[in-house]
C-alpha cells in the first residue's frame, strides 16, 4: 500500500486531514481514467495520414530519438497497409506502441512537422503510430522479428523498463541468450508503474512487455534487485555482457522541515499504487492537494488526484511556467483538469499537528542575477496531501565503487558503454539521460548493437 | 446582378445550368424538384421504345474517392429510362406546361431505322418539349445493341440519323457525343453535316473503377462479375474541356453551339467550359453527390464573378478563351520562365526538391550553407512547373517570366522579345525556311 499514508484516512475526524477514498460516484472512475486519446478509427486514420506531405528528409524523423521513418509509416497507413506501417515503426522502436501513447510529441516529431509550421496543426503522428501498432498487436501474437540463430553468448539485462526491454529484444534478434531482471513484480518499469493511467489503459504496458518477450530467448526474472539480490561483479562473471537499465529508484527530498509528516508523499510511489490499484474508488486521496515540482510527474500526480476526486489541487513550481519541464501540452492538460499552477513559489515548511499535515508554507521566489532567491513573502496553502515530484535519483547500491558516475548518474559513451568494458547502461540512470521513454528505448537499442558487435568480435 | 438568361439554339432558360440526361431527370418528381431548386433546364433521361429496358438490380455505380471520401470520379451502368414510354411522355408534357420558362429537352435513343425515329419524334413533339438530344454516347448496354456510342463512334451513322431527325421534326436538335473515340472533331463535323443545331459533350468514358482483390472481379461487383461502365464526375473535367475546346476552335465546326457536360461541379467549372465555347452547362454527378441545391451557388457564383469582371450577360464571355487554345507547335519558345520559391511561405517540406531531384532537372536545393533550404537553381531550371504542382502551399512557388534582353542562366542565351515557335525552329526538319533558300 501507499507509503507514509496516515492511519487517519480510515478514521477521519473533523480536525484531521481530509483524506478519503470513494470521493466520486462509482461510474466516474472508469470515465475519468479512460483513454486520453482514443484510438483513431480507420477513416480518421486515413484522413489524418493523407495530411502528411511525405517530406523529403523529414524533420519529424530527425526529431525522433529512435529515428522512426515517420513519413513511410504514415504513407503505409494511407495506402491501407497498417501491418507494414507497424513493421516500419517496430524496426526502429519495439516499444512503438507505448511511445505512441506517452511521447511528448508536441516537443518532438509534431513540433517540427511542417504542418505545425504552416498552420499550427501538425499531423497527429503519435496517434497514427498508435493506430498502426495497435493494429499489429491486435492481429499478431509476436513481434515481426525472428529470434536470431543462437550465438551461445549470455547477456544480463538489469531492469525491465523501456531501456531494458528494448535492449533485450534487440539482443534476442541477434541470437544472444538474455536474462532480464527486474526488482518489481512485473516487467515494464515506469510504463507499468509510472506514467499516468489515462495514457496507458487496458493494461497496455503489461501486454506490450509480453509482446516484446514473445520473440523468445529472453528469460524474465522479477523480484531481483541490483544490490540486494543481484551483484554486478557476479553478473559480470556469469554473463558475457551486462546492461543496466535500472532507472532512478530514489526520490529527491524537498529538504524542508515537516517533510516526514504523514500525508507528505513521494509522487512516484502514489502513482505506482494508483497504476496497480484494482479498484480506484478504494484509493484514498486528499481533498486539498499540493504538488511540488514542475515536470511530467508533477502533472501526472496533480491530474490524477483531481480525477480521483480531490477538490483543490495546486502545482507549486519555483520558477516561471515557461521553465517547467512538463510540456506546454501537459500544462494545459493540468489546467483543463482544474489544476492550479502556482509559479515562483518554493516550499518552506510542511505544517501540521500530531504528525499529520494541515498546510504547506511556500515562499515567493524571484530570479536575481540569474539565480533563484526567496523574497521572504510566505503563502500558506491548506493541504491534506503534499506530493514531492522534484526529481528522482539513482539508488547507487555500491555502483559508485565499480563504475564511473557523475552527478549521481552512470557515465556512458555514445555506444552506451560504461567505464567497464563488459557493462553497458541506458535509460534514466545514465548521465544526460533525457527522461523520456523513447530516449530509453534508443539507449537500449544502441547498447544492444554495441554489445552484439563486442560479442561478435 | 448579371443577366444569366440563356438562349441556346432558340431554347430559353433563366440560367445556363441544365441537368444532364441521367437518373436525376428520369421522372416528373425529380425534375420538378430540380426546377423548384432553380435549375435553368433539364435534358430528360433518354427515352427508348417499349418495351422498356431493364436495369441490373445490384450496384449500378462505382466511385473513386479521396481519403476523406471526396467523390472524385463516378461510373455507372444504368441504361436509358426503364419506365414505359407513355408515362415519360405524359410527365414531360405536364412539366413543360407547369414550367414554361425552363428548358426541357428530351433525350432519345432508338434503333437506327428511319421509321423508328419518325415514330418517336412525333410523340415527343406532342409533349411541347423544347428540343431533342440524340444520345449517341451511352457506352454500356445500349451500345451492345447497336445504339448509343455504337452510333456515336461512326460519323456516317451520326450524320444519317441527325438528318432524319431534322427532316422529320421541327424541334431543335442537339447531338450528344461520346468521348470513346480518337478524334472528337469527326463526330462533331458529322453532326453538323447532318444538320444538328448543336452538339453536347462529353458522354461518359469507358471505365473499370477498380478490382475487388478478394473476389478478383472488376468493381462494382454484381454477383461475382463486373462490366465496364461510363465514367464521369470531377475527374473527367479536363478531358471534357479539351474535347469541347477542340470542337469550338475547329474551323469545320466553328460557331456550332455546344452544351458542355463533364465533371461540372461549380460555377467556376461552368464558366471555364463557357469560356471555351459552351452556351450551356449540363450537370449530373455534382447533383447526384450533393442534391439539387448546389445550383444556388452556381447561379450566385457565376453572377458575382460576372459582376466582378464587368460582364452583364453570358454571351459576353462565351467562347472568349477559344482564340487562346492553341497547338503546341505555336507556343512561344522564346518565353522563358523560372520557378521562384517564396521563402516566407515555404514550409520546408522538400517536395519540390525531391520531385525535381529524382524525376526532373536537379534544379532545387535541399541545403544552403548547411541549413535546410529549398531554392531554385536558375542554371538548371527549365521552367517545367512540376515544383509548383507538387508544392502543398498555394502560391509559394511561382513561375516568373524572364524579361526580354536578360540572359537565361541555363542556356546562357539572351531572352528574345520576339515570338518564335517550333514551325520556324532550326531543329525542326519541317521548319518553314526563308523564301531566299
Quick tags:
heterodimer, A: 457 residues, alpha/beta, FAD/NAD(P)-binding domain, Fumarate Reductase Iron-sulfur Protein, Chain B, domain 2, 3 domains, five-stranded parallel β-sheet, 17 helices, 19% strand, disordered N terminus, B: 437 residues, eight-stranded parallel β-barrel, four-stranded antiparallel β-sheet, 12 helices, 20% strand
Q: What radius of gyration of chain A results from the CA coordinates?
A: 23 Å
Oligomer: heterodimer
User: Which residue ranges of chain A are poorly predicted, with pLDDT under 50 across at least 5 consecutive positions?
Assistant: 1-13
User: How large is the count of helical segments of chain B?
Assistant: 12
The dominant shape of chain B is: globular
CATH superfamily of the largest domain in chain A: FAD/NAD(P)-binding domain
Strand order of the largest sheet of chain A: 4-3-2-5-19
**pLDDT under 50 segments of chain B (min length 5)?**
none
User: How would a crystallographer describe the biggest sheet of chain A?
Assistant: 5 strands, parallel
Q: What is the CATH C level class of the largest domain in chain A, in words?
A: Alpha Beta
Write up this protein.
Chain A has 457 residues and is an alpha/beta fold. Chain A has 3 domains: 2-32 and 253-391, FAD/NAD(P)-binding domain (3-Layer(bba) Sandwich); 42-139, Alpha-helical ferredoxin (Fumarate Reductase Iron-sulfur Protein, Chain B, domain 2, Orthogonal Bundle), CATH 1.10.1060; 154-249 and 394-456, FAD/NAD(P)-binding domain (3-Layer(bba) Sandwich). Chain A contains 17 helices and 19 strands. Chain A has a 5-stranded parallel β-sheet, sandwiched between helices. A 5-stranded parallel β-sheet of chain A has the order 7-15-9-10-11. A 3-stranded antiparallel β-sheet of chain A has the order 12-13-14, with no helix packed on it. The longest helix of chain A is centred in the last third of the chain and has 20 residues, at 437-456. Chain B has 437 residues and is of the alpha/beta class. Chain B has an 8-stranded parallel barrel with strand order 3-4-7-8-9-10-15-16, surrounded by 8 helices. A 4-stranded antiparallel β-sheet of chain B has the order 5-6-14-11, with no helix packed on it. A two-stranded antiparallel sheet of chain B has the order 1-2. In chain B, strand 1 and strand 2 form a beta hairpin. In chain B, helix 3 (114-125) crosses helix 5 (155-168) and helix 8 crosses helix 10 (294-309).
Amino acid at each position: 500500500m501507499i507509503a507514509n499514508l496516515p492511519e487517519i484516512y480510515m478514521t477521519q475526524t473533523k480536525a484531521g486531514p481530509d483524506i478519503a477514498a470513494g470521493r466520486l460516484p462509482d461510474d466516474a472512475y472508469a470515465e475519468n481514467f479512460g483513454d486520453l486519446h482514443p484510438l483513431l478509427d480507420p477513416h480518421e486514420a486515413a484522413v489524418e495520414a493523407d495530411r502528411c506531405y511525405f517530406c523529403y528528409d523529414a524533420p519529424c524523423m530527425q526529431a525522433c530519438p529512435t529515428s522512426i521513418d515517420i513519413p513511410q509509416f504514415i504513407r503505409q497507413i494511407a495506402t491501407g497497409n497498417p501491418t507494414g506501417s507497424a513493421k516500419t515503426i517496430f524496426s526502429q522502436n519495439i516499444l512503438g506502441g507505448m511511445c505512441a501513447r506517452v511521447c511528448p510529441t508536441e516537443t518532438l516529431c509534431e513540433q517540427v512537422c511542417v504542418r505545425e509550421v504552416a498552420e499550427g496543426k501538425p499531423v497527429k503522428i503519435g496517434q497514427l503510430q498508435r493506430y498502426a501498432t495497435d493494429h499489429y498487436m491486435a492481429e499478431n501474437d509476436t513481434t515481426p522479428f525472428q529470434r536470431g540463430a543462437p550465438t551461445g553468448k549470455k547477456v544480463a539485462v538489469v531492469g525491465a523498463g523501456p531501456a531494458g526491454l528494448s535492449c533485450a529484444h534487440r539482443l534476442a534478434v541477434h541470437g544472444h541468450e538474455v536474462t532480464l531482471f527486474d526488482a518489481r513484480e512485473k516487467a515494464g518499469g515506469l510504463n507499468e508503474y509510472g506514467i499516468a493511467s489515462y495514457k496507458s489503459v487496458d493494461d497496455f504496458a503489461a501486454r506490450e512487455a509480453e509482446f516484446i518477450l514473445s520473440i523468445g530467448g529472453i528469460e524474465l526474472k522479477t523480484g531481483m534487485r541490483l544490490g540486494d539480490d543481484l551483484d554486478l561483479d557476479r553478473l559480470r562473471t556469469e554473463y558475457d555482457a551486462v546492461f543496466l537499465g535500472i532507472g532512478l529508484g530514489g526520490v529527491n527530498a524537498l529538504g524542508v522541515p515537516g517533510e516526514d509528516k504523514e500525508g507528505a508523499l513521494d509522487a512516484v510511489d502514489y502513482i505506482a499504487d494508483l497504476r496497480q490499484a484494482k479498484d480506484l474508488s478504494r484509493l484514498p486521496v486528499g481533498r486539498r492537494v499540493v504538488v511540488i515540482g514542475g515536470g511530467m510527474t508533477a502533472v501526472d500526480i496533480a491530474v490524477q488526484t483531481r480525477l480521483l476526486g480531490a477538490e483543490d489541487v495546486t502545482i507549486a513550481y519555483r520558477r516561471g511556467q515557461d521553465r517547467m519541464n512538463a510540456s506546454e501540452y501537459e500544462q494545459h492538460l493540468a489546467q483543463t483538469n482544474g489544476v492550479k499552477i502556482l509559479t515562483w513559489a518554493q516550499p518552506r515548511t510542511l505544517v501540521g499537528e500530531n504528525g499529520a499535515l494541515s498546510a504547506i508554507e511556500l515562499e515567493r521566489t524571484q530570479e536575481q542575477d540569474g539565480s533563484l532567491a526567496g523574497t521572504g513573502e510566505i503563502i500558506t496553502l491548506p493541504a491534506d496531501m503534499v506530493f514531492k515530484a522534484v526529481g528522482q535519483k539513482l539508488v547507487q547500491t555500491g555502483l559508485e565503487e565499480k563504475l564511473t558516475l557523475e552527478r549521481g548518474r552512470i557515465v556512458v559513451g555514445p555506444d552506451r558503454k560504461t567505464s567497464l568494458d563488459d557493462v553497458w547502461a541506458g535509460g534514466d540512470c545514465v548521465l544526460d539521460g533525457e527522461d523520456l521513454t523513447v530516449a530509453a528505448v534508443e539507449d537500449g537499442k544502441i547498447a544492444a548493437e554495441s554489445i552484439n558487435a563486442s560479442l561478435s568480435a | 446582378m448579371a443577366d444569366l438568361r440563356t438562349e441556346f439554339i432558340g431554347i430559353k432558360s433563366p440560367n445556363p445550368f441544365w441537368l444532364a440526361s441521367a437518373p436525376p431527370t428520369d421522372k416528373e418528381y425529380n425534375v420538378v424538384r430540380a426546377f423548384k431548386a432553380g435549375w435553368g433546364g433539364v435534358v430528360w433521361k433518354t427515352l427508348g421504345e417499349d418495351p422498356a429496358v431493364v436495369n441490373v438490380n445490384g450496384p449500378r455505380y462505382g466511385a473513386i474517392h479521396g481519403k476523406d471520401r471526396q467523390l472524385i470520379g463516378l461510373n455507372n451502368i444504368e441504361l436509358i429510362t426503364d419506365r414505359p414510354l407513355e408515362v415519360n411522355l405524359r410527365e414531360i408534357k405536364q412539366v413543360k406546361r407547369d414550367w414554361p420558362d425552363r428548358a426541357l429537352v428530351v433525350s432519345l435513343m432508338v434503333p437506327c431505322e428511319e421509321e423508328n425515329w419518325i415514330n418517336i419524334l412525333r410523340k415527343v413533339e406532342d409533349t411541347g418539349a423544347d428540343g431533342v438530344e440524340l444520345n449517341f454516347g451511352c457506352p454500356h448496354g445500349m451500345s451492345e445493341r447497336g445504339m448509343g456510342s455504337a452510333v456515336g463512334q461512326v460519323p456516317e451513322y451520326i450524320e444519317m440519323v441527325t438528318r432524319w431527325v431534322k427532316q422529320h421534326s421541327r424541334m431543335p436538335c442537339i447531338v450528344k457525343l461520346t468521348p470513346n473515340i480518337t478524334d472528337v472533331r469527326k463526330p462533331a463535323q458529322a453532326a453538323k453535316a447532318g444538320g444538328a443545331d448543336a452538339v453536347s459533350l462529353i458522354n461518359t468514358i469507358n471505365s473499370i473503377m477498380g478490382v475487388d482483390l478478394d473476389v478478383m472481379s472488376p468493381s462494382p461487383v454484381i454477383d461475382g462479375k463486373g462490366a465496364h461502365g461510363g465514367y464521369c464526375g470531377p475527374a473527367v473535367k479536363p478531358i471534357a474541356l479539351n474535347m469541347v475546346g477542340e470542337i469550338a476552335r475547329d474551323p469545320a465546326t466553328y460557331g456550332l453551339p455546344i452544351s458542355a457536360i463533364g465533371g461540372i461541379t461549380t460555377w467556376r467549372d461552368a464558366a471555364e467550359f463557357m469560356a471555351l465555347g459552351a452556351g450551356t452547362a449540363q450537370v449530373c454527378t455534382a447533383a447526384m453527390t450533393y442534391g439539387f441545391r448546389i445550383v444556388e451557388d452556381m447561379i450566385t457564383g457565376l453572377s458575382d464573378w460576372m459582376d466582378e469582371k464587368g460582364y452583364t450577360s453570358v454571351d459576353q464571355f462565351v467562347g472568349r478563351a477559344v482564340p487562346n487554345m492553341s497547338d503546341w507547335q505555336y507556343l512561344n519558345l522564346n518565353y522563358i520562365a523560372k520557378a521562384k520559391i517564396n521563402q516566407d511561405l515555404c514550409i520546408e517540406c522538400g517536395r519540390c526538391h525531391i520531385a525535381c531531384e529524382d524525376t526532373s532537372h536537379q534544379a532545387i536545393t535541399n541545403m544552403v550553407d548547411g541549413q535546410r533550404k529549398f531554392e531554385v537553381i536558375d542554371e538548371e531550371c527549365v521552367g517545367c512547373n512540376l515544383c509548383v504542382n507538387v508544392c502543398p502551399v498555394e502560391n509559394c512557388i511561382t513561375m516568373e517570366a524572364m524579361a526580354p534582353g536578360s540572359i537565361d542562366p541555363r542556356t546562357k542565351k539572351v531572352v528574345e522579345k520576339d515570338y518564335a515557335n517550333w514551325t520556324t525552329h532550326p531543329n525542326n526538319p519541317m521548319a518553314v525556311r526563308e523564301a531566299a533558300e
